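Trying the structure run again after the queue cleared.
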Amino acid sequence: MLNSAANKATTAHLKRHNETLLLRAIYATSAISRVDLSRETSLSRPSVSEITHNLIQRGLVLKVGSAPQANKVSKVGKKPTLLAFNGDAFQIIAIGVDDLFVVGALLDLRMQVIDQTALPINGALSTDLLQLVFAIIETLRDQATRPLLGIAVGTPGIIDSESGTVFLASNLGWKDLPLAQIISERFQTPVYVGNDSDIIAIGESRFGLAKHVKDVVVVKIGVGIGVGIISDGHSLRGHTFAAGDIGHTPFPGLDEICLCGRRGCLETVVSWWSLKRHLQNFIVNFPDSHLAQTIGQRPITPELLADPLFSKDSDTIALIDPVVTYLGYALLIIVHLLNPAMIILSGSMVKLGDPFFEQVCDLVRARAFPYMTREFQILANMQDERSILLGAGALLLEKELGL
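Done. C-alpha cells:
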C-alpha cells in the first residue's frame, strides 16, 4: 500500500512537472508547434500532445494557425499546428499596500493592466486599513470580464508567504494577521500575500529594470525600509521569512526609539516617518527659516524637499545628510554580503530627487571594495507602484500555474 501511494504521488508530481515545463515554454513565445515543444522540453511527442490537449481544454492554450513548411517546394504532410498561451483565460487582482495608498490593478495573464485604482491610506491602521484593501478588491472584482485566477497582495512586514500570514507590520498595525485566509474566505478565491520589497524584486526581475538579471536587490525606502533579494534567479526569504529586514538592525550612533519599540534601528533615520518627524520638529523650532517658508502649510511629502535639496539649501542638506550616510552604509553591507549585479532603490524616499540618489551612489562607490562593484549598477525606480502590482501578479502566476 505504501508503494502504491508513493507511485501515485510520483506520477501526479511528474505530470504536474511536465505540464509546467510545457506551459512555461508556450508562455515564453508568441506561438510554437508541438514538435518544437517536444524538442525544447525533451518530452515525447505523445506526452506533449496529451498535455497540450488538456491545456487547450482548460482554456490556457489556444490553437492559432499552422506553421509554415520548412520545405516550401514539397507540400507533402500536414502543417504543424501552432499553439499560443491564452492571456485572456483568466484575470488577476494585484494589490499593493504603499506608503500613502492602497493601489490595485486588474491584470490579464500577460500582466497587461485592464483597470487600476487606488485609495489614500490617510493614516489608517489595522482593521481600517484592511477595509481599504477589501474596497479596492471589490472595485476591481466588479470590473473583471473573465474568471479570476486569484488575488495577490504585496505589503510591508515580516510575512510567511506560504500561509499568507503577516507576522509583524509595525507601521500598519498588523500582527499575526492571517491576511490570505481572511481575503480568501471573503472573496472565495485563491489568495497569496508577500512582502512588498520581495514582490517588487520579483516584478523588476521579470518585467522591469532587472529583467534577465539573476542577482538583484531591491531596497524600498518609504514609511520603513525593506529589502527584496533575488539571488541566482531565486527569491530569498530566510528561515523566518525576515531576510532583508535591515530596517530593524541597530546601527552604531543611533539611539532613538523605533516604531518597533527598540532603540537605534536603521529606520529611525532611513525612513519617511523619521525624516518627516525631524522636518516637522525643525519647522516648529525654526518657523522663519527658508525651508519652513518654502513648505508653508502644504502637506509634507518627499517631493517638497526635492527642490530645496537641489538648490543646496543648508537646512535641507543638514536634514538629508544623515539619511544619505546611513543608507549608504546599509547598501555597502548589502554589496559586500550579497554581491548583487544591481541594486534598485524604490519607495517614496526616492522622490527626494537626483541629488539624494547621486550622493548615496557616490558614497557606495567610494567606500565599496572595487572588485565588488565591477559591472555593478545602482538604479532608482520611480514606478515602484507598477513594480509591486506586476510582482504580485507574477507571484500568483507562479503559485497557480507554475509560471
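Confidence is low (pLDDT under 50) at residues 1-9. Worth checking whether this holds up in the mutant runs.
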